[in-house]
Fold this protein.
Amino acid sequence: MRRCQMLLSSVQGTAAPQIASQLHCSDQTVRNAIRAFGREGVGCVQEKSHARHDHQSAFDQQGRERLRAMIRLSPRTFGHEGSVWTLAWLAESCWPEKITSRPVNVDNVRYVLGEMGIR
């Protein structure tokens, strides 16, 4: 709705700083909306995904190689009581072992292992 208001005000000749002041946003937000209308037409007013579009994996290539090496070792080496790795143990061990750039959860580990072709 706010983008529609920006576009309508722009068509009526109102300057971007005035529109921004009326709608409590930045001048650049108004300019972005006007440019998006020029590129996309009416489609620019539809809400889009707010998900990040850049790849934010905690596992870099070196981390993936270290993960592959770690799963070949016994979990007992890393302080776990069993002899077979679980996803939870892998997730718990990755951050302290500097395999990942941040703490990870089971879903992160499952996804990366899948990408690596490991089930």
About this structure: The longest helix spans residues 27-40. Residues 3 and 36 are 10 Å apart (CA to CA).
